[in-house]
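Regression test case RT-17, inverse folding.

Input:
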């Protein structure tokens, strides 16, 4: 049994991967380019992957390949239809990152709403020490209590964020594909118009790609902030940049980008010195506990597959 791990560095070099060795011969690479991928998977029985795109061109000559294990919940990097046509199973790792992504989402919102960066800078650059005042209250910030928090995508992560939002005293609005009882489910237009805080937690699909663009941003309050911890391509990054530069929305937080790492020509590079912009390097999913749960699920998926059981298979 040949097992190939294509990009273990994306899981963190501190993570113990030895639990997968019991299944057979393991070859692991810190990273793999698209050009390198076909050669590296051609003799594999099982491939473990995070970011490498598992396209037809990559897997078509991998005659022994039986299972692709995605070390993430999302699997838009894998051509599911082609894999199914070739009898190659695909398993993902659902729900492992819920506490972590919810935590980072709320942290971003707290920082942006409370202007923590600006207040920190006031002390760290010496302005407070030389101000002659016991406090500084500029920029003005507002309490969460009474604000409206709109959540786009209401799976495990969206629900976890919603619980925190309600604990803060926020009114909750939800936009999801299938409305559910017990929540104020509204269409996207209503959510954008009424929310003071918006967080995005939906998967990337043909329907959600570029779902937030110039027209949608124009619906938002000028005082509203929006945080994206889903996928970079669910909003139009150029339109979001323009909205910030032109002062049409109050701020953004973002942990995901349409190309990663962030390219030098990416529009968000224009925003790096904006106090109302909080960009992080796709780390929201990656607490140690979260990464450990993720890889444990991969091992469990392999065990189930080898035992003839279906677990977390994508069809």
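Golden output:
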């Amino acid at each position: 049994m040949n097992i190939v791990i294509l990009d273990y560095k994306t899981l963190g070099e501190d993570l113990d991967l030895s639990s997968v060795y019991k299944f057979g011969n393991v070859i692991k690479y810190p990273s793999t380019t698209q050009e390198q991928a076909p050669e590296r998977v051609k003799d594999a029985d099982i491939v473990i992957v995070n970011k490498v795109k598992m396209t037809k061109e990559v897997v078509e000559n991998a005659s022994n390949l039986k299972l692709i294990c995605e070390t993430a919940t999302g699997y838009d990097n894998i051509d599911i239809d082609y894999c199914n046509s070739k009898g190659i199973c695909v398993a993902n790792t659902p729900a492992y990152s819920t506490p972590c992504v919810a935590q980072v989402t709320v942290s971003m919102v707290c920082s942006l709403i409370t202007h923590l960066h600006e207040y920190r800078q006031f002390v760290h650059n010496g302005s407070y020490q030389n101000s002659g005042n016991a406090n500084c209250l500029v920029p003005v910030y507002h309490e969460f209590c009474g604000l409206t928090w709109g959540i786009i995508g209401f799976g495990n992560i969206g629900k976890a964020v919603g619980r925190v939002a309600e604990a803060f005293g926020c009114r909750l609005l939800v936009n999801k594909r299938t409305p559910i009882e017990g929540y104020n489910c509204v269409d996207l237009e209503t959510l954008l118009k009424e929310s003071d805080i918006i967080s995005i937690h939906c998967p990337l699909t043909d329907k959600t790609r570029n779902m937030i663009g110039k027209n949608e941003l124009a619906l938002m309050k000028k005082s509203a902030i929006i945080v994206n911890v889903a996928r970079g391509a669910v909003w139009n990054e150029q339109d979001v940049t323009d909205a910030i530069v032109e002062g049409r929305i109050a701020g953004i937080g973002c942990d995901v980008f349409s190309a990663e790492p962030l390219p030098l020509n990416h529009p968000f590079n224009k925003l790096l010195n904006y106090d109302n912009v909080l960009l992080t390097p796709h780390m929201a999913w990656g607490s140690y506990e979260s990464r450990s749960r993720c890889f444990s699920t991969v091992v469990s998926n392999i065990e189930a597959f080898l035992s003839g059981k279906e677990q977390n298979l994508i069809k």
